[in-house]
Amino acid sequence: MNITIDKNEKYNVIKVNEEKLNSAVAPDLKAQILYLHTQDYKPMIIDMSNVQYCDSSGLSAILVGNRLCKEANLSYILTGVQDHVRKLITISQLDKVLSSIPTLSEAIDLIFMEDVEKSLKKEH
Q: What is the model's pTM?
């Protein structure tokens, strides 16, 4: 398994350190997403900057995380999505479902902005 997890105060980053997100890697990614979601209930960023290829099992693992976070009203952001993977997401019409931000720092900024917005809504 070549997946790293970076736990932060406001979010968690799961980085896929593989060129191929396929049936050999997807079960590990899915397991990490499920474990993190149950143990450390925060918005999730999936860093895909190393992933050059993704198949249906990889998409399935990504979608599990999206569903879990959506049900819990938590942000779930893909970042560093490479061209081939982006095309697959678009062809599968998942570009309307999955939130994708170009860089990790932009994804982190978005999570902090959403957190501020939630705080402001609570005050009113």
A: 0.92
